[in-house]
Design brief:
about 0% strand; globular; about 250 residues; mainly alpha
Length: about 250
């Protein structure tokens, strides 16, 4: 696994050397969302009994930031390497497709977790939890979320041939999935049709399970959500490994 270690180190350095762009900027963006929505809705919205709107909002913002940055890390790394032509330096060494997958995946997971911790840290002054009712759910959903979107980012990076194709993937798939998954609202506040549609969004279960760790309330059964999230992660990872093994748009 020495190839994995080298590639993983390279991927870590790639985002850490520009941490202002890859870590600080997403944290500031999440903070702006919190300032605007909590200021406007804090006194008017109570989603769960005894839970302020700000306390409801914080877990959603943390999870949304982790999802978007885990996807961005792996997808942007691959498309940049392909566009600049230096992907050949990754493909020429005797790296197995599993080493390739794990290196990009774990770098994406770590960036997602680092950004998530940053967002959580800056929001503590607004809604500091007295305790976490279910800390195990926090860790499980955070790892699944970063892993799922990191793997999906590899798929997008392999598929895309130009920056605008990757931008379309992010704007028309990732952003709708994250923004329409209950980050800013409970799905029980939606009309029946759209509430039913929300249950087909796997990101909803990640955010709902993550919020359950903070406030002890959820819109869906946390165990069912964990099952759905795990199944999606396994399916996307299997697809990614198939693409890497076949050399689709990388070696062929």
């Amino acid at each position: 696994m020495s190839g994995f270690t080298a590639l993983f180190h390279k991927e870590m350095l790639r985002f850490w050397k520009v941490a202002v762009q890859t870590v600080v900027a997403p944290v500031v963006t999440a903070l702006l969302y919190l300032l605007i929505f909590s200021h406007v809705l804090e006194a008017h919205v109570e989603v769960y009994p005894g839970v302020s709107y700000t306390a409801f909002l914080v877990p959603g913002l943390v999870m949304m930031s982790m999802l978007q940055n885990a996807f961005s890390n792996s997808s942007s790394s691959l498309i940049q390497s392909k566009m600049q032509g230096n992907i050949v330096f990754v493909l020429l060494p005797p790296l197995s497709y599993m080493e390739f997958f794990l290196a990009y995946l774990w770098a994406a997971v770590i960036r997602g977790l680092v950004v998530g911790l940053g967002v959580w840290a800056v929001t503590l002054g607004f809604a500091s939890p007295q305790h976490l009712p279910h800390p195990g759910w926090l860790l499980a959903n955070a790892l699944l979320a970063c892993g799922m979107l990191g793997a999906l980012g590899i798929v997008a990076g392999i598929w895309a041939e130009k920056y605008d194709q990757l931008a379309a993937f992010q704007n028309f798939l990732i952003l709708p999935l994250t923004f329409l998954s209950g980050v800013f609202y409970s799905i029980h506040s939606l009309p029946p049709f759209w509430e039913a549609v929300s249950h087909f969004n796997p990101v909803f279960y990640l955010i709902d399970g993550f919020r359950y760790a903070f406030v002890g309330h959820s819109d869906a059964d946390p165990w069912f959500g964990l099952l759905v999230s795990t199944g999606c992660f396994v399916a996307i990872s299997a697809l990614t490994l198939i693409l890497l093994r076949s050399g689709y748009k990388l070696r062929h």
